[in-house]
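--- STAGE predict ---
source: upstream dedup step, 1 unique chain passed
mode: sequence only
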Amino acid sequence: MDTAKPLFSYRPYWAKRFGVAPFLPMSRKEMEALGWDSCDVILVTGDAYIDHPSFGMALVGRLLEAQGFRVGLISQPDWRSADAFRVLGRPNLYFGVTAGNMDSMVNRYTSERKIRSDDAYTANAEPNKRPDRAVVAYSQRCREAYAGVNVVIGGIEASLRRIAHYDYWSDKVRRSVLTDSKADMLLFGNAERALVALTHRLAAGEMISEIRDLRGTAFMAPFGWKPGEDWAEVDSTQLEILGRVDAHPDPYAFSSASQPGQPAAVEGAHPIRLVSREERLTQLRAARSHTVLRIPAYEQVAKNPVLYAHASRMFHLESNPGNARAIVQAHGERDVWLNPPPIPLATEELDRVYDLPYARAPHPSYNATSGDAKIPAWEMIRFSVNIMRGCFGGCTFCSITEHEGRIIQSRSEESILHEIEAIRDKTPGFTGVISDLGGPTANMYRLACKDPKIESACRRLSCVFPDICENMGTDHGPLIQLYRKARALPGIKKILIGSGVRYDLALRSPEYVKELVTHHVGGYLKIAPEHTEEGPLNHMMKPGIAAYDRFKQLFERFSKEAGKEQYLIPYFIAAHPGTTDEDMLNLALWLKRNHFRLDQVQTFLPTPMALATTMYHTERNPLKKVLRGGQSVPVVRAGRTRMLHKAFLRYHDPENWPLLRDALKEMGRVDLIGNGKQHLIPDFQPAGTGRRYESAAPAGARRPHPTGKPAPRRSANPLVPRGKRPR
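--- STAGE serialize ---
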């Protein structure tokens, strides 16, 4: 893997003399109090501003501040006018634009395309504080506010829309967000390296149009542009066609025309030199570093679903920073050029990013304008600690891998323990309970490939599917040690694990499962088997349900040994590509056999760039080589069928019984309709129910426990159960 310049090795910008701001300024008054006449960088975000490393704009802003730059922030501006984008003046270097911690469309709409009634990233959960496709709207207003200003886009919305992508909400393939936003540059993934390098180079006087060599960046270029004459282009705009392969000339062949005892010259032959494996790998890496892969153009993938699936597969195969090539995709007469992904941060760099002087609180303006403002996302994470980033699971429906990458970046013990102490000492309302030590996954901390050389050459889409790779380290020892040290800190009463546990990995370490169950479960532990049937699981790249069963046995055994009554909360997805009605019926029967009555269920939501979204749009499987006439993937599109799959997960809800009865009759399974224990649903309908297919729990209703038993009463802190536990 290429080496990268250390993140904190740059000479600080001259404005570092102004020192650290208590909060990044959101008004001219705050700028004046800091002694600033202008901002070097102005960040625009669709979220409320919370100065905490779990919120992207705070992390980015504090990182740039540590480099010496003056950073202002515009939070949730009124996008209907350019006036809101002028409040801090013109930035000296650029506007940095993001939709926030979530894609704006996912944030605003449900999987049924209905507008959500609240927004967790807004003060008092107020909805409609951001526009659809916020990156595009904000970027256009920045241009309108100040002609010729540099605009750099980033965050998860820009990252997942960096090439032509299927958009579920408009039900069509949309162009790269670069073309619609007219931004100068896009930073994708965890972009600290590109961000810092770009900002210093702009401050040194370089033009943004000339900066084309930063990993983790994308930009528009003339069609066919290359960084240099030594670059080669690999054309992958068409499907591979199997045909005749010409035989290679035999360098040892003799010809009748040759001199006696002398081999004849063979056209194309050349002397053979033995090359070591290391030398060959070096040659291949050098060649790939100056190679760009051309995938099918926007105009092609917009019309041809098979080519879309092929482009998606090619894109995902170029995701390893150790061997990824640059990618180019034509959009009309111009190209969208994507440099290889960024080099992951080292532990020391990640520690310094998280140890920056965050205020660890929402900006004071929210209480000034809204009284005691509550921001749900902040309330959820204020007592939690992010210990790592990235995920090598590769679940096809999840966007974490596409955004954060497959290589795990972990913080040191010292940094994590220091943050826990900061929460204990500085965060108002702390009761001694840490709500989570986790990240995208709870138990991937410090897990990595056993051999860096193998890791840098690997092109697998998942390290744990169809089984855990033999080269993947699964030692949970460092995580166990972290848990023990964390709960031993003075003033810490309990450390809970709120992130989802990857249970197939946990099975490799029964000691970890015992540690987790004995000390870190607050009555419930959430895990995500997602389904029980082989077809959907294969299209999700998830382990079989047998792994869940083995984990459940360990969980119950260690809970009993600890003298605790605890429950697993499994999550399932309805209507995922590759799922049939029979699959959902079998899942419903499994739920009934295991006495699960799910309250909240998830219907598959196609998010931009995910592999499962490719399946949904194209009905092809990009996990395998895409060929014309290949096997199609079952896809649920019709509203009634999506409702049916969701209803199977809530087979116990009387509101769903009419739909399920009709479906069971159509499937020839009337044997499952009746009033016995062997039946899935009854043949009677309670009065006043069944008039709609989707239920709506009455306001204030207590959620039933997944086993059907009464839920425990809870204290004001929902993470600390009290009173009688369910039996």
